[in-house]
Inverse folding.
């Protein structure tokens, strides 16, 4: 833990000077490096029908483990990461459900320092959704959903452990396609659904949800992607109550036909201007909503991202370490194994589909996550192909060691070292300047109806020192803590941990 931190309460961090923002292509000179991905343990990851995939260090051994849920009849997996090699331990831990697992989220609901697992099913499941408490020390997980008040049923979609009321513990947001969405407030380890009272019990057919402090006023707002022609929502958090402002901001897509809808939203600062832009994977043309000072403009068409791929989810990541976020978009059509996925490299003023050959063979996907599972500095790729002849492959990114090393990963914990700060913002600057090298968000939902607990990843122009600013949301508003002159070489193979109130 770093203790030499400076806190600035009650206001947003100083925006980056636009003149100091790196122009596209400025971080890596010359041509973009070729991208090579190699399958990891393909026999282990060959089972078809994968749906949510969520990464977290459940055993607190310093590397990230992978949970994957499947279509009904195929048991769930928890792949323990043993130094870059994986072994399935779900059965020994009691979490190998063979039901229709549609959603999964990691979070420390009881603030004991161990990551617990929420799992969502379909209404046909013989049991309600589960919340598995992690006892630690390799012990079997215990379903406590009924005891703590979250044992609900429904066509479950995006779950997210977030602290919507800034009281220091994680609440649980759960989306449903067949009933109003739930927002379970955490009161000392027990939950109460306060969504109806707070105006966020969206009754439409929700699939995806992401949370972030959109207006930078110190609390989490929520974008809700709705299906079957229903309009999307953007719920502004006003003192703990929610107001849907999607129509006024131009992100509702109201009036679309019944065969179209929002599926997988994901947040990333693709233009390096210091705020989060919103990509929505759609049934229908995909959308890229650029944040223009708190209002949104759909720039998907001029940026080359408005394709109609029947997309299910997407993930941002600086895969080639050129200082710009790239985007992987996955698609699925029932009965078609080879619905193409797309890997869009960010060329600055537009995106170009440059799918690596080794990945293109695995299409028809639901889950997609960029993650540095082997701790070599670059982002690897995990997919779940939701098809009876698919797989759930993991690909290692083979950037050169020198290029892979040019990155910094940052994790944010509370003052006791617990993972209760989803939605925190991480900004990395060239040391002693306001030259923004990257803005990232701690995961609040994404992939396909999944939430992980992973460090954020920022590629760097060199191994020179950088300044890191972490903004967390508290009852006192936005609190920014700054760690100056961080040497990236000191954090090769591990994340810089910043603790915040």
């Amino acid at each position: 833990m770093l203790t030499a931190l400076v806190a600035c309460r009650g206001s947003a961090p100083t925006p980056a000077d636009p003149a100091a923002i790196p122009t596209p292509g400025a971080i890596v000179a010359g041509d973009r490096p070729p991208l090579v991905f190699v399958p990891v343990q393909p026999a282990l990851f060959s089972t078809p029908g994968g749906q949510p995939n969520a990464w977290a260090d459940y055993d607190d051994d310093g590397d990230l483990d992978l949970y994957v849920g499947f279509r009904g009849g195929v048991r769930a997996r928890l792949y323990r990461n043993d130094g870059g090699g994986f072994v399935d331990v779900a059965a020994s831990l009691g979490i190998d459900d063979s039901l229709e697992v549609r959603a999964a989220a990691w979070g420390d609901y009881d603030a004991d320092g161990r990551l617990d697992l929420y799992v969502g099913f379909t209404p046909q499941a013989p049991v309600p959704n589960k919340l598995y408490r992690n006892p630690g020390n390799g012990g079997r997980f215990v379903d406590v959903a009924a005891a703590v008040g979250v044992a609900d049923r429904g066509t479950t979609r995006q779950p997210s452990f977030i602290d919507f009321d800034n009281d220091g513990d994680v609440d649980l947001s759960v989306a449903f396609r067949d009933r109003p969405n739930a927002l379970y407030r955490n009161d000392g380890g027990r939950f109460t659904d306060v969504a109806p009272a707070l105006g966020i019990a969206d009754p439409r057919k929700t699939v995806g949800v992401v949370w972030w402090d959109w207006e930078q006023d110190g609390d989490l707002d929520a974008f809700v992607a709705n299906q079957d022609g229903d309009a999307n929502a953007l719920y502004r958090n006003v003192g703990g109550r929610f107001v849907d402002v999607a129509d006024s901001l131009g992100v509702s897509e109201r009036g679309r036909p019944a065969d179209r809808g929002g599926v997988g939203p994901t947040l990333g600062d693709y233009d390096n201007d210091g705020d989060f832009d919103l990509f929505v994977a759609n049934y229908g043309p995909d959308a890229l909503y650029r944040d223009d000072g708190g209002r949104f403009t759909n720039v998907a068409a001029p940026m080359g991202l408005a394709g109609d791929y029947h997309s299910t989810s997407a993930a941002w990541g600086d895969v080639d370490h050129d200082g710009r976020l790239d985007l992987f978009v996955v698609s699925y059509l029932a009965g078609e194994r080879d619905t193409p996925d797309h890997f869009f490299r960010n060329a600055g003023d537009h995106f170009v589909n440059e799918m690596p050959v080794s990945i293109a063979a695995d299409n028809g996907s639901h889950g997609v996550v960029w993650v540095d599972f082997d701790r070599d500095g670059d982002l690897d790729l995990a997919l779940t192909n939701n098809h009876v002849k698919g797989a759930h492959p993991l690909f290692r990114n083979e950037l050169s060691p020198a290029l892979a090393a040019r990155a910094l990963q940052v994790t944010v914990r509370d003052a006791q070292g617990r993972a209760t700060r989803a939605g925190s913002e991480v900004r990395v600057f060239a040391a002693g300047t306001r030259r923004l090298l990257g803005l990232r968000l701690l995961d609040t939902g994404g992939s396909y109806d999944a939430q992980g607990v992973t460090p954020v990843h920022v590629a760097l122009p060199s191994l020179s020192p950088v300044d890191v600013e972490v903004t967390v949301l508290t009852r006192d508003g936005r609190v920014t803590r700054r760690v100056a002159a961080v040497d990236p070489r000191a954090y090769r193979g591990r994340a810089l941990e910043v603790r915040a109130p």
